Amino acid sequence: MAWLPDTVLLKIVDSIDHSMTRPKYEELMVELGFYSLSTLRDDEEYYRLSKRNLVIRTFNEKNEDELLSALSDKGALNKEALRALAGVGYEVEQSLAGDLAEPLEEHSRLELALVGMGLAQVQTFLEQSLENYLQGNYEASNAMARTALEHLFEQIALRISDLRGNEPIPKQGKYMSPADHRRYLHSTGFLEDSEKDFLDKFYTYASTDGSHPGISTEAEARLRRFVVVAVALLYLEKLANEPFIESLL
Fold first, then answer.
1. Hey, what long-range contacts does 31-40 have (CB within 8 A, 24 or more apart)?
2. Helix, strand, coil in percent for the chain, rounding step 5
3. What is this structure's pTM?
4. Max Cα distance, the chain (Å)
5. How confident is the model over 76-99, as pLDDT tens digits?
6. What is the chain's mean pLDDT, rounded?
7. d(CA 111, CA 123)
8. Which CATH number fits domain 104-247: 3.20.20.150, 3.90.380.10, 2.60.40.2660, 1.20.120.330?
């Protein structure tokens, strides 16, 4: 029997609806032993349910404690859901990462560097990413972190181009893309082979789920933010290294 008040259950449903796709939720149900693959495939009513109604039905029929613990581990419970649970005396065990939203020291250094180098717009995108993260809007947080990364490399490419006598930046399509900026920086020697490979793969990872609703979790959004901050610090340090930049000219 369900013991959660409807108001609390709806907070949980909202959180899951925005942080997990239906396939991910179904995969979790199978992992917990609530359903088997054969049951899911044979239950026509199950597939007629919306994801929200499916979550409500699961909470009404299954072990809530086990389900809440698993959802917390998956990063599917946002702060509003956790607060609602705490309000009825239920404390969900937090993940190892706790409430981390920012690598604080690194971000402070990055903010100073960005402002000092005239790249405050990158900082604005990072702040918007953080704001969305704290509000539980993980897809929007991903999108703004990715935008910050794109803008950073665009600006670095433009600066290198200017230093090389306004050298044109080749583009492969009709419009300049983030991949064009990375290719250009690689061609100038600003990016090493391994660095370009890493950035290409990370950009793919950061874009796979991107801002599509109901896909990213808190843990995934946090990872993307941490990596973007570390990457930005590294390449700002490169940009500020005068002997290195002179070697590219």
1. 31/70, 32/62, 32/66, 32/67, 32/70, 34/58, 34/62, 34/63, 34/67
2. 70, 0, 30
3. 0.60
4. 72
5. 887 788 888 888 888 776 554 444
6. 83
7. 6
8. 1.20.120.330
